[in-house]
Structure formats: structure tokens, C-alpha cells
């Protein structure tokens, strides 16, 4: 890649920018709206302004909890947390909360489900700030506040990390080894926010101090003037602390350790081809050519995408060299076997096309079911990445419901003999929805450095499934007064003659994500902000609806291709991301930045979440709700494979029978702490059992113990032994069956998570 072409593009860019900013634009009718008043408010600033004085700024302690309480098993949540979204939440906040849950599902074993009467649940409401309790307090309805300006994904993930049992990173027992607290710079009365906890309270779970944790204060937390209150012992981390983008690797590792995570429920596969086993991918049957793992290809690319030539001895990708192949030859590259749960997936990969323009890359899935034990190929789509001198990002939506493989099929259609071919790298597959639109800004580092402040660039207009068009506005050097920042705004767009839309635009959530281009989707710390079109919102100092028809409230602009359209006012933030952070990680790769944009309908979130018909009061004496719900290692979204695996299910999940007592049990009295259950249609008492004693009888009216020397006790203990033996045998068989069924999928994914942790 030479330097001439980028510079040319850049000059063109700047020319457009200057023209756009100073010469061609009419004055807008409605001014843009800053979602947080134009200020970079961290969680603690928001709470301070709201007049809250909470422990460590955003932690609520209950009367039973002391500073030194221990995060033990009893404070943990089940792996699937019941939640209730209260009516007062902002619609945008509700949408972002669901996005935060999706990140938990993609990166951790924590899942969330609407509250269905479980004894303990998290009730999310719009309080005067952003705050949570630490751990599961077992109080039934445990409230977590997502107030004004808290509707950022990282803020919501941060509050839920508190709820899951985590304190702030700088309150760790060993923090004085890593940061200096400047006590004289802390506002009077706020010193308590810098307390540390002893090793048992704030367990570091064997993970080193993490300056990049989402749970770390920023350097200016609770300051009384302009000087930082936290000075990192390694100065390079001074501006790293306080990131509010996404979970850091260590945040995830600690969560995995506290909750014994084995797999994330929506993650399926990731491959950067750095290892020779190519992540278990295989050459498909019935073709004439092969994909080969290489570090460079004759006709391009010169480097892979994961490493961009930065590390010697690494940087591999898969290449199908079409030059030497015969016209009509195909090469199939297939993923390992995968086991979907949700039934929809997003395949994401980088594609470098240096082949003949006629050559094609097609995506298939090979689906397996009883009727087709060897799998059947189903065509999904042709990738229309024309030959270009760069790695192009592609998303493909899949809808697979059975065991499957993803198949990449390269076909040589051209007749020439060029040096090039097709190349694939950084493949990720997850059970999530694909981002709809990609806006790639080339030479982004230079754009940031050379664009004057208060000068913006616009993405192309994108039209959603429902027919609304929008675009993103980016100030690469910030709006006026925000040097060193990226500022980002979303605008609705309409063209003359557009019909079919309803105005003001009702409840569409626009998300602007700057993609962290890390090869592994679970390690990405992308930066995103969402805004929602509230049809009732009025423009500042105006009687007009903010999200009304852009032909009414916006102004006409001319696109680079000469076409004209109307652009409405923008909503967003001048403090989208600092340049310093934008230059970190893989936000810029090969010089380019990639923005992933979506517009989703969130009108269903204006409806009240249904209340469960029956509820269970919280109680500390109920039979081990923690154990019962966290014990199954199978991901929560997997339906039980069948109902005959009762022996293990009934002992590990008594909550089912206690949360939904059958009517048949109403007339049955079980004595001595026995519990009435309905087992295969039969009403019976399940009796309490201790280490060396047990209750028995149809009402648990008799007690046996090893001390009893009567024949009855012996007989019953023998029969108990016999029953236990049978139960064990049955469960061993069931587990074996289950394992056989799931082993390929689950165990490999498990191994994968542990592998990635080590990296
Ligand atoms: Ca690679
Ligand atoms: Ca082959």
C-alpha cells in the first residue's frame, strides 16, 4: 500500500469537509441535541449532580451488609438472572439494557430472563443516577438504577457487575501497589470513596490489578480542583483508567472465576488462523482445489488481517489461489460442527479479493438432521466484494436450527491466469443479530490529525428494513470546544418523494459503534452509543417535533454523487470517544476505522413488562436456591433434552417444584420439612435427608438413622442404597447419552474459552 493514494483520498476528504462546513450548508431549522448536555459525565459525576452520596459513588449497602461483608456463595446470583424493567425507564435505556445483556451472553456465562416469579430478581428503574447493590442481597426485589445519562452500555454493564458481586477495581486490597491516591485533591467528605477492602471482601480472584478494568475510577474521580485524584504508578496508564467502553479481559476472567463459567451462551466460533489446526476447520469433500494456510499471497494480500504484519512468525490466513486452478474448479472450506441454540446467527469475516472479477465466493451451511446424517448444503449468499487492495469486512445472517457447518465455497469462473485469489481471516460466528450497515473511514488516523475542530464528515445514508433512512455525522477532531475528542451524531434523512413513513419517527434506536477490530469477538472492546427517536420529543426552544419529517425540520443537502436529500437535526454526543482511546486497541487497523451502524425498532419497549402471575417470597431458608440454579453446567437457554433425565434434574432443580407448586399438592401435608412434588403425575412427599439420618414414609412421618439398630432401618437403608445405586446408574447412562449428544459442541467451546484466557 503506497502513500500516494491515501493522501489523494485525504485531500479529497478535506476538500469535501471544508466545502460541507463553510460553503454549502444552509442553516438548520432545529439545532442538534447533545444527549448528556455536552459533558463527559462518568457514573460518579452523574450521581454527584443528582445529590447522591453512595458508597464508592454508585454502591448501595443494605442494613445487613457491612463494609467487610464477604462475597461468598450466598451473595451470588444464579447464572440466569431474572430481571424486571420498571415503567419509568427511558426507552433508549431499555434498549441499551438489552444490548448490555447481549454482551453478557456473548462473553460470559451470565444470562438474563424476564422475571417469572422467582424469589430474587433485579428490578431496573430510573432513579436519580446509576447505582446498584453489590451481589445478590436475597431481598426479593433488588433494585438497580439506570437514571438520566446512564443509558450507555458500559455504564449498564458496570452496574450489573456490581450486582453480580464486584467492587471497584481501585478498592482492591493491593491497589496501593499500583496507584497513588492524592488525598489532598479529593473533595471534602468524599474520602470514603477511596477505601480499600480486605482480601476476602474484594476478592481479586487471582487476577492481576487491571488499569483497563471497566470497574476502575477515572483519574479525576471526586476531585476538588483540576488535578487528578488517582495517579497510576506506571504513568502510561494515567489515561487508561476509567474506560467505559466494554469489559476488559480481566473483568471477564474474574467473572468467569466467580461464576465458574464454562461457556457463553451465544458464542459459537472464532478463528484467526494463527494456529496450524485452523480451529478445526476442514477441507470440504467433492471439490478439486484447496484453501491453504499462508502468511502472504502472490497477488495480495501481503499480510493477514489479525496481525497486519506486526509480528514476525505469525499472521496467517486462508487462501484459495485461483490462478493455477482450472475454470470451474471449486475449493470448499468448512467450519467444525456447530450446535445452535437460538436458531439465528451472525457470521462475520474479513475477505481479501485479488482474484478475477468473475470468480465467486459463496457462503453455504451444511445442515445435519435425522433424515440427512451426512448433511445437506444450503446456499445462503454470494459475497459481492469486488477485487480491491484491502481486507473487506462482511456480515452474513444465518438462520440455522440444527447441527451445522459453515461452508466457504470459492469458484474459479474467470479464464485468465492472474496471480491472485481469495483470502479469509478473522472469522467469528455468534448467535446474535448482524449489524446492518458498515461505514469504513479510510486513513482514519490522518483524518483525526488533519481535520480541523468543529468540522464533520457524514456516513452515506442507510435505509432500515422499515424504510427509514439515517446517517451518522462524525467530527474527527471534535465539535467546537471538544478538542481531542470524536463527536458523533445521528440524523434522520428523507428524500423528495419518500412515502410510507410515519412522522415524527416513532421509537427507532440508532446505534453508532466504532468497532474494536480485535480478531476475537469476545475480546473486542468496541465503543458504542445509541439514541432513540422519541416521537413526542420537542426541539429545544421550538414547538416542532425533533424527529419530524426531515423535509419539514431539516434542510436540503447534496450528496457526493449529486443526488439531493433532506437531513434532519442530529442527536448524539460531543464526547463519543477520546483520540487517545481511539488510537488504542484495534479501533484503527491498517489505517482504517470501521463504524457499525444499526437502526432497530424498539416500540415494543414502550409496553409494560408483564408481571408474573405467581411469585415466591425471598427466604434464606428455602432449599439452596443458589446451588439449585447454578449447578447445571448446560447453558440456560438449552431446553432440557428430555423429561426422563429426572433423577439428576429433580435433585438439582427443586426450585421448579417450589416456584410453581401444583394444585394437587394443596391437599398434601408433608411432615419434617418434606416437600410435596408431582413426579410423573404422582403426588408424593420428598423427605429431608441428612448425613446420617433420613425421613421416610408417605408423609415423611418416620425417621431413620444409622444409629437405629432395627431391622426396619437396616432394610430401609439397604433399600435407600439400592435406590441410590439405580439412580446413579440411570444418571450415569443419561449423562453419557447427554455427553455424547453435546460433546463435540460444548467441550470444544469450553476448551476454547480456557485457551483464549491464557492468551
Ligand atoms: Ca490471521
Ligand atoms: Ca478442497
TrEMBL record:
It is a single-pass type I membrane protein. Residues 1-24 form the signal peptide. The keyword Protease applies. This is Meprin A subunit. CDD domains: MAM (cd06263). InterPro entries: ConA-like_dom_sf, EGF, MAM_dom, MATH/TRAF_dom, Meprin, MetalloPept_cat_dom_sf, Peptidase_M12A, Peptidase_Metallo. GO terms for biological process: proteolysis. The lineage of its organism: Eukaryota, Metazoa, Chordata, Craniata, Vertebrata. Residues 608-660 are annotated as: Disordered. It comes from Seriola lalandi dorsalis. Residues 269-436 form the MAM domain.
